[in-house]
Amino acid sequence: MFWIICAALAGVVAIAIAAPLLRRRAEAGEEPAAAYDLRVYRDQLREVDRDLQRGVVDAADAERLRVEIGRKVLAADRALQAAGGGRRAPGGWAALAVLAALLAGAFLLYPRLGQPDRPDAPIAQRLADAQTLYDNRPSQAEAEAKAPKGPRPAPDADYAALIERLRQAVAKNPNDPRGLELLAQHEERLGNLVAAKEAQRRLVALRGDKADAEELARLAGLTIEAAGGLITREGEETIAAALARDGRNPQARFLLGLLHLQNGRPDRAFPLWAGLLAEGPETAPWIAPIRAAIPDIAWLAGRPDYTPPEPAASALPGPALPGPDADSMAAAENMSPDERRQMVEGMVKSLETRLATQGGTPEEWARLISSLVVIGQKDHAAAILGEARQRFSGNGPASDLIEAAAQKAGLE
Questions:
Q1: pTM for this prediction
Q2: CA dist., res. 383 & res. 369, Å (int)
Q3: Four-point Cα dihedral 327, 329, 335, 337, nearest 10
Q4: How confident is the model at residue 272 (pLDDT cuts 50, 70, 90)?
Q5: Gap between the Cα atoms of 371 and 345, Å rounded
Q6: pLDDT tens for residues 318-348?
Q7: Quick one: which of 247, 306, 256 has its CA closest to 278?
Q8: What three-state secondary structure class fits 25?
Q9: How far is Cα 405 from Cα 374, in angstroms, rounded to an integer?
């Protein structure tokens, strides 16, 4: 039935295009003789009327002349109609040949580029296909084996030696959560995604029920990256565990939406990603890919009327960062050096805790990195730098601010 409709439409269009090309007409500038005769006969009819008015001829003669001239007009008109089909328009045959070639080319190319044997796909069949795709996903090990090996940054000698010492320290003390956390961050930074995933997995297992949604979401992200971007059953289970800890965790919700897209269910992905886009903030790393894809996802989900929210005003530059108040500054003048150091460390720790639990602006992350270096925690500052890079990847102004703080702190 589809082929019949398409052939009929193609035929109608071809006829509409070819009809003007097939119409005959006289050469440009050449007038048929019958057209000249018609003008003469019409002039004669007008002359008869004038003669009748002047009394040169009587009514009977005028009527006889009109009848005779009328017969000549009809004969000239028939001759003119016949002369109208004289010659075809110049280039008509060439245009018809091009039209025929286009039609033939379309029929020849469709079996190669199209899908002539594809059956109709009602919604029930499409849902069944999506379920089949979901059920037949490769395992995590298979996906990791097939994942493309992208370029890895070449660390300098000092950094490579530091990472090797960190690996050895974690191997000697596998139950050190801080060591596992640092190892996962730095292995990811080096492009060793499988090793980073394994370190994060061990950290989550070590924390057990105390593992929070952020740690589980981070493990889910590393599991997906190690699989080349494919969300396997292992990755899906980790996403579910993160959402079980915190159903509003944005990274886990973003990954759940990505899972639905990979398995042909934009109708399920759309509400998740639309909600994240509405919540923001615009600096979140998942906002840029969502904003780029949400119009197409909305259309596929049956929401062609969806309008994405306008980007919020950039957080750069933001409001003044929180700091000690006047009373704290006055009290600090009477403190001993150890007491002042403890106060500063407490402020830095408070800022770090707030950023880890509530998030914050790029300026606050840059300030935390600089402050950690000032109080002598350079290694920890490097770990925070890696986390900030991941959080603000894809946000050019925020990344520039983070990199400027890292360079100023001597972390590059």
A1: 0.53
A2: 9
A3: 160
A4: very high
A5: 9
A6: 444 444 444 444 444 455 566 556 666 767 7
A7: 306
A8: strand
A9: 12
Least confident interval from 201-205, 217-221, 310-314: 310-314
d(Cα 77, Cα 43) in Å, to the nearest integer? 15
CB 362 within 8 A of CB 283: yes
Contact 281, 315 (CB under 8 A): yes
Residue 166 makes CB contacts below 8 A (sequence gap 6+) with 179, 182, 183, 186
Do residues 409 and 370 lie in contact, with contact meaning Cβ atoms separated by under 8 Å?
A: yes
In this predicted structure, what is the pLDDT of residue 154?
73
* 3-class state of residue 30 by DSSP: coil
Q: Which residues contact 395 (CB under 8 A, 6 or more apart)?
A: 283, 285, 288, 362
User: Two tokens at 50?
Assistant: 């004038």
What tokens does 72 get?
Answer: 């000549």
**Nearest-angstrom CA–CA distance, 259 and 265:** 9
Number of CB atoms found within 10 A of residue 310's CB: 7
DSSP bridge partners of 24: 88
**Residue whose C-alpha is closest to residue 283's, from 132, 396, 169, 382:** 396
CA distance 322 to 42: 100
pLDDT, mean over the chain: 80
d(CA 179, CA 71): 113
Three-state DSSP at 153 gives coil
- C-alpha distances in angstroms, 370 versus 118, 122, 239, 286, 382? 60, 58, 33, 26, 10
Report d(CA 87, CA 25) in Å as an integer: 5
Q: Please say whether the dihedral angle defined by the alpha carbons of residues 268, 270, 271 and 272, taken in this order, is positive or negative.
A: positive
Which residue intervals of 136-175 are DSSP H helices?
A: 140-146, 157-172
- 3-class SS of residue 87: strand
Measured CA distances, 31 to 43, 110, 167 (Å): 18, 47, 97
pLDDT tens for 158-168 read 888 888 999 99
pLDDT at 63 over 60: yes
Q: Which two tokens stand for residue 257?
A: 């939406």
Q: What separation in angstroms does the CA of 292 have from each of 26, 250, 274, 309, 396?
A: 58, 17, 12, 12, 16
Q: Tell me, what DSSP letter sits at residue 114?
A: S
Task: Answer whether residue 298 shows pLDDT above 90.
Answer: yes
Supply the pLDDT for residue 316.
40
Weakest mean pLDDT among 65-79, 166-180, 226-240 = 65-79
